[in-house]
Amino acid sequence: MKRYVIVGNGIAATGCIEGIRSIDEKGEITVISKEPYPAYGRPLISYFMEDKVKLENISYRNAEYYEEKNCKVLYGCECTGIDTDAKTVKLNNGKAINYDELCIASGSSPFIPAYPGIEGVRNVYTFTTIDDAKMLKEAVTNDKNVLILGSGLIGLKCMEGLFNKAASITVSSRGNQVMSRILDKVTAKDIQKYLEDKGIIFELKDTVDHFDGNIAVMTSGHEIQFDILVMSLGVKPNVSILNGAEEAIKVDESMRTEFKNVYAAGDCVQSEDITDGKTKVMAIIPNAYMGGECAGKNMAGGNAVFDNAMPMNSMSLLEKHIMTAGANREADGVEVMDLSGKSSTKRLYIKDDVIIGYTIVDDVESAGIYTKLIRDRAVLSREQQESLKKSPTIDIYGHDTVKTILESAV
Ligand SMILES: Cc1cc2nc3c(=O)[nH]c(=O)nc-3n(C[C@H](O)[C@H](O)[C@H](O)COP(=O)(O)OP(=O)(O)OC[C@H]3O[C@@H](n4cnc5c(N)ncnc54)[C@H](O)[C@@H]3O)c2cc1C
After folding, report:
1. Which domains does the chain carry?
2. Most-buried pick from 135, 162, 366, 367 (CB within 10 A)?
3. Entry pTM
4. How far is the CA of 290 from the centre of ligand 1 (A)?
């Protein structure tokens, strides 16, 4: 019987468990879970903070899941190192576990810069885990001013969770737009305006020079006084367990690392983005799940490939629905097909007759088919592109095919 070990218990680990079990029903699976919770949807922690969902409802699978999959989960246990020659993982309780096949699905952790004066700041938080959300929820009351450093997805989801709970929320970022990794400039401006109209304060194009107690002194000289500080300036992959690595782990299309019988998936890996050919970390749920599932199948002797990773986001921010995928910027050789309506945004990015990305706000109905067209690298004739402008889904393949595509779209 094969011994499978998975480090981490998030989305990639879930994909890995399901990949293994699709081939091997009997092998022994041990999951090492630093957090004391079953796998959960991190995007939902802001809804937990807003009191929209209860903790028990943010689990990624049902309560019986691990038992049904016959997995042993070591909750609250940390892997401290991997010996790839001896094929063992070391644990923080001093024990070691042998593996035949290992998957590193350890995700990422918030990056916290060493700002001068940070040690003198009271009430510093991050926002990536259930425990972070629990602590913030407890700390924030409607007489507290919150400063969020970072205007990316995590910073803005935190803002959403705290909306209407604090005296003020200021979001600060060195860049000149919100969600610079996700949104094009025009959409970012629209979203910023939408949030400003709801009372959120943005301090962009500025960064903290130092802290003087609970005052952030910005490089511009401007001072921001706050009671609560949230650091959401990006994440770094949890990879030091693999021979002290610092950069996200490189994997091939089978999710194999350079070490024998060692696979990796999720936010701790870098792989090729099919929409621009660049190797990068694509820290999103679909990639984590699909990468993990592919790794699991191969660990169990299968022959799976995950070769269509791309950045993709589907989120709502105070009732605004935003979906983006792939390379969604103007660049050399990229045509922008603007299908925006009066109160919605829809821009498709096309290169060499292939849709390589999109940005959609509110009118998200047809996003599934665009995602599928990107993943399939479907080459569209000029005629098809014209019909796409008139009717985003139906005309391009015909009713039945579209139905099949939509049903299989991730
Ligand atoms: C607030 C927030 C909002 C988000 N919103 C979206 C969204 O809208 N859409 C989207 O697609 N993605 C979103 N993401 C990103 C998404 O959650 C991640 O891409 C996804 O969770 C990655 O899954 P993973 O399994 O790789 O890592 P994780 O889910 O981070 O799981 C890794 C687990 O491994 C554990 N671990 C780490 N090191 C060790 C160790 N040494 N030993 C044992 N355990 C260890 C960690 O504690 C963690 O529990 C969001 C993330 C956050 C934080």
Report:
1. 3-108+236-299 (3.50.50.60), 118-231 (3.50.50.60), 319-408 (3.30.390.30)
2. 162
3. 0.91
4. 14
